[in-house]
Design a protein that fits this description.
221 residues; mainly alpha
């Protein structure tokens, strides 16, 4: 391996950052964090776990492509996208269901039991949110980075490792930064109607997002 990998590495950095800056990679975390009222620490942890799933899946595909070629990706790509879009769409429907259910039970008088139920319900909602975000990113790998892997075949596996590190650092750093900026910006605004109907807005937004991702990805292929 020599200095000829430098242009490939620079291209890898650019692709990783640009790809991670796409709203589908960080906006769902902002929406879920606000809906579930997560702290920045929890949001950061969930994002890092989901982001690592995204990076690992992309790295595994890169390794397979090293061995089998692009035919594997072209054959199974649509299934990855379908799983990713479905997961975030289901979570959106779940949010709308919770909104409707919450309105029906808004006048419950059993405060203690109701609060205990809400704690259990919140835990379940968190689980759904985390699973949906993890599935969304894991099954929507960074396809634009795969040609970068192919261009480094002559550098063998050491080159593959270097590019994988670049992918991980560029992707996770960009996602964390954009999520943090967005959350800080939203924290400055107090919108009464939005806060009262947050689950409804969250659900609709996630469903629209899943549909957009589906059509954009399939249109590209």
């Amino acid at each position: 391996m020599n200095s000829s990998i430098l242009p490939i590495a620079l291209a890898g950095i650019m692709i990783a950052v640009i790809h991670a800056a796409i709203p589908t990679h960080w906006l769902p975390f902002v929406i879920a964090s606000r809906a579930q009222k997560w702290s920045w620490q929890k949001t950061q942890s969930v994002l890092l776990i989901a982001g690592l799933g995204h990076v690992i899946m992309t790295t595994l595909l890169g390794a397979i492509i090293f061995a089998l070629g692009l035919g594997f990706l072209n054959k199974y790509h649509k299934y990855f996208i379908l799983i990713a879009c479905s997961s975030i769409g289901i979570y959106g429907c779940f949010q709308i269901f919770q909104y409707i259910r919450g309105n029906k039970h808004s006048h419950c008088e059993h405060t203690h039991d109701h609060n205990h139920f809400e704690d259990i319900q919140k835990t379940g909602q968190d689980g759904w949110a985390i699973l949906s975000l993890l599935t969304l990113l894991t099954f929507s790998p960074c396809e634009s980075f795969l040609p970068i892997y192919l261009s480094a075949i002559q550098h063998s596996w050491p080159g593959f490792v270097i590019l994988s590190l670049i992918l991980a650092i560029g992707t996770l750093t960009t996602m964390l930064l954009l999520t943090w900026i967005s959350m800080k910006g939203l924290a400055r605004f107090k919108m009464g109607w939005l806060e009262d109907n947050e689950k409804l807005v969250t659900g609709i937004s996630l469903i629209i997002l899943s549909v957009l991702v589906f059509f954009i990805e399939f249109h590209q292929h």
